[in-house]
TrEMBL record:
Top-level taxon of origin: Bacteria
Membrane topology: Multi-pass membrane protein
Protein name: Aquaporin family protein
Signal sequence, start to end: none
Organism this protein belongs to: Actinomadura logoneensis
Length: 307
């Protein structure tokens, strides 16, 4: 049976990479959105629970996917790697689609599992109560933060994410060894959640926000595309992270990466067993991380709940 499954459902090329991105992002969102549902609707846990579960979700999602796809789990990571690290542009949209699909399916699973709890906590499925379980809002739906403030926050938060992820996965910069890069990147997301969660729920990942937002929209949250002020908001956690990722990756290269000396990066992909460079940072850095330390996990987190 196992052999039949292995031979019948074995994908190759871009298909297997998309499957890995789908699976890794699915795991990330199951833990991330799941914990927000538990805290906001179930009353179990607090902001620290949310920050830690998102970080662990990133770590586990990267471990699931990094060997095959690099574990981007985040369109902002994929775009930044295409801009600066030679990741193939032809793969950007397929990766983003797989990441968003994984987030969407995971959010549907959370929505289904917590059906009764969500209905009791918020029968009307409103913006101010449980919409933030699935998608982010300015000021987490309660504080006086404008769309501009939320956009600024997303640019800064994602820039921090990519800056540090590149540092952690750069072979010339003493990256974590023993396959520990995903663990440290998960801790990075925990830190971002604890320090940058107020203004916009630290989505720092377009797939993490859009996939669950779509899932909540088709399951009863009619106002999913707007914020608590009734302004169209869904674009903010998409545009902000895409811009911030490029800014953060560029700053890393300008301030750190371009000044490092070390082994020839071109020889690393083959040594790491990758058929072609997946990227050389976040998410399984085929070009910059040592074999066994791949995986960027710059997936992002966020909550519209009590951040």
């Amino acid at each position: 049976m196992a052999e039949r499954l292995r031979t019948s459902f074995r994908l190759t090329g871009l298909g297997r990479e998309m499957a890995a991105e789908f699976a890794g992002t699915l795991i990330l969102i199951l833990f991330g959105v799941g914990v927000v549902a538990q805290v906001v609707a179930g009353g179990i846990g607090d902001h620290d629970s949310i920050a830690w579960a998102w970080g662990l979700g990133v770590t586990l999602g990267v471990y699931v996917s990094a060997t095959i796809s690099g574990g981007h789990l985040n369109p902002a990571v994929t775009v930044a790697l295409a801009v600066f690290k030679g990741f193939a542009w032809r793969k950007v949209l397929p990766y983003a689609a797989a990441q968003t699909a994984g987030a969407f399916v995971a959010a549907l699973i959370v929505r289904w599992n917590y059906t009764e709890v969500l209905a009791k906590a918020d029968p009307g499925h409103t913006v101010g109560k449980t919409q933030g379980v699935f998608s982010t809002l300015p000021g987490n739906g309660t504080l006086p933060v404008s769309q501009w403030g939320a956009l600024r926050d997303q640019v800064i938060g994602t820039a921090i994410l990519l800056f540090v992820v590149l540092a952690l996965t750069d072979l010339k910069n003493q990256p974590p060894l023993a396959n520990l890069a995903p663990v440290v990147i998960g801790l990075l997301v925990v830190a971002i959640g604890m320090a940058w969660g107020t203004d916009a729920g630290y989505a720092i990942n377009p797939a993490r926000d859009f996939g669950p937002r779509l899932a909540e929209y088709i399951t009863g949250y009619g106002g999913a595309w707007r914020d608590q002020n009734h302004d169209l908001y869904f674009w903010v956690p998409i545009v902000g992270p895409l811009v911030g990722g490029v800014v953060g990756a560029g700053l890393y290269l300008i301030l750190i990466g371009n000044h490092l000396t070390g082994p020839d990066e071109a020889a690393v992909p083959a040594a790491a067993g990758h058929p072609e460079p997946q990227y050389d940072v976040p998410g399984g850095v085929a070009e910059t991380a040592p074999a066994g330390a791949t995986g960027t996990g710059a997936a992002g987190g966020g909550t519209g709940g009590p951040a």
